[in-house]
Amino acid sequence: MAVLRDLRALLRLPDFRRLLAVRLLSQLSDGVFQVALAAYVVFSPEKQTSPGAVASAMAVLLLPYSLLGPFSGVLLDRWRRRQVLLYCNLLRAGLSCGTAVLVLLHVPDWLFYLSALSVTAVNRFVLAGLSAALPRVVDGDRLVTANSLSPTAGTLAATAGGGAAFVVHLFLSAGAGADAATVLLAALLYAAAGASALTLGRDLLGPDLDGRGPRLGAAVASTARGLREGLAHLRERPPARQALTAVTVMRFCYGALTVMLLMLCRYAWSDPGDDDHGLALLGLAVGISAAGFFAAAVVTPWASARFGRSGWIALCSAASALLLPPLALPFDTAPLMLAAFALGVTTQGAKIATDTVVQTAVDDAYRGRVFSLYDMAFNVAFVGAAAVAALVLPADGRSTGLVVALALVYAAVTAGLLRTGQVATDRAHADRALL
Q1: Helix/strand/coil for 44
Q2: How many whole angstroms separate alpha carbon 293 and alpha carbon 298?
Q3: Residue span of the structural domain in which 397 resides
Q4: CA torsion angle for 251, 257, 259, 262 (degrees, to 10)?
Q5: 392: helix, strand or coil
Q6: pLDDT of 97-140, one tens digit each?
Q7: How far apart are the first and last CA of the chain?
Q8: Among candidates 97, 87, 117, 96, which has minimal Cα distance to 22?
Q9: Is 64 in contact with 57 (CB distance < 8 Å)?
Q10: Is residue 212 part of a domain?
Q11: Does residue 8 form part of some domain?
């Protein structure tokens, strides 16, 4: 299989192996922590969750630290990225321990959200740092393949972490004790991710600094200028700008569907009092979606070479528009699980192509800032989607209007990409490369 051959070739690169290990452990920890949050916020027997409550939780956990995106970008372009991966993971380990204590103490929700926010906020530095560092350990010819396999492997690791969290909940009685134990497992894995960063050279991941980097105060003070420069640089790179716009809108659709699926698992497909069954259904959906992510990693290098990167993004969006109504509108478990797989393929396929477009079209000196803006746009889109879903979704998650509207949005993304002319340009380049 070509993907296994490509993976073996990449794994022969020792620095890629080490960076991949950091990603896998970091995202494994994320999967554990995210399931712990879902279990505590949505599937606790004593909580009556509504779409509005889910949207509020997402806003609290995602929107504030999305605003840290520009700050993380400026600092990532000034701090050694290896050190960022080390210290941020160790910090998350300590903060997770504090969150576990708060769960056991049954503190008010706002205090729990604040603590959880502190853990997930640091994640911006880790994910943006991993993306910005990848071109430092892989040559240009292998970058598309690395972008297919590395983030997808991270997503699969996050899914495995979620599975580990589900196992914890199966063996422990539902309640604060199980939730706290899951958060502590995440803390242990965050510490392991931090330790694995020490296997990389201190200066290997860049950025290339002229002399000593600026003091923290000077770096923070330059955030506004850095953001403006990053946006200006992005405006000068139409392929990167168009791909980012398209994948952000697709992220909005995926976020709204995620809230819908969560409410279906909680109320429509299981007894609202049976939190274990609802959580198990959500875990199944996540696992099936992860299988779609893996399929995207297999097919995207070939599809990008065949259709061009922009063409593959447009094709992913078009497939989403066509498949969503017939699979989602019955609101039955089996077709929606199939939709989870299909949207896993299209969502991850578009993201892999976009990552590569940004990495190749953006100068290394700006990558940290641009990827931080990328992350910020992703999370703002997800929160916006949750807010829209909260307005239109009934308690059981069934909304024909929402499904139809999202299918039309996917179609609009496809039309927008085709109008730019970049799809035709990329396709022509791809055809020449295949000759």
Answers
A1: coil
A2: 9
A3: 14-205+219-434
A4: -130
A5: helix
A6: 999 999 899 888 788 888 888 888 788 788 878 888 888 888 87
A7: 23
A8: 87
A9: no
A10: no
A11: no
CATH code: domain of residue 408:
1.20.1250.20
Q: Residue 331 has which token pair?
A: 């609101």
Mean of the pLDDT values across residues 291-305? Answer: 88
Note whether residue 2 is domain-resident: no
Count the domains in the chain.
Answer: 1
- Where b means 16+ CB within 10 Å and e means fewer, 376-393 reads bbbbbbbbbbbbbbbeeb
- 183 assigned to some structural domain: yes
- Annotate 286-303 with DSSP letters as a single string: HHHHHHHHHHHHHHHHHH
Cβ count near 2 (within 10 Å): 11
Is the bond preceding 207 in cis, omega lying within 30 degrees of 0? yes
% the chain with pLDDT above 90? 32
Look at residue 15 in the predicted model and tell me its pLDDT: 92
Q: Give burial (CB, 10 Å; 0-12/13-18/19+) of 289.
A: buried
pLDDT attached to residue 282: 81
> For the chain, how big is the Rg over CA atoms in Å?
21
- State both tokens at 423: 């799809």
Q: What is the average per-residue pLDDT within 378-390?
A: 84
- Contacts for 117 with CB less than 8 Å, ≥ 6 apart: 60, 61, 64, 65
Report the C-alpha gap between 204 and 83 in whole angstroms. 11
Please report the pLDDT score of residue 60 as a whole number.
64
Distance separating alpha carbons of residues 134 and 146, to the nearest angstrom: 8
pLDDT, tens digit (0-9, with 9 covering 90-100), for 139-165: 877 777 787 788 778 888 988 898 888
CA 69, chain centre distance (Å): 14
Which of 4-8, 70-74, 393-397 shows the lowest per-residue confidence on average (mean pLDDT)?
70-74
Residue 73, pLDDT above cutoff 70? no
Compute CA distances 54 → 8, 38, 48, 287, whole Å.
41, 9, 11, 21
Chain position carrying tokens 């139409």: 238
The percent of residues in the chain predicted with pLDDT above 70, rounded, is 83
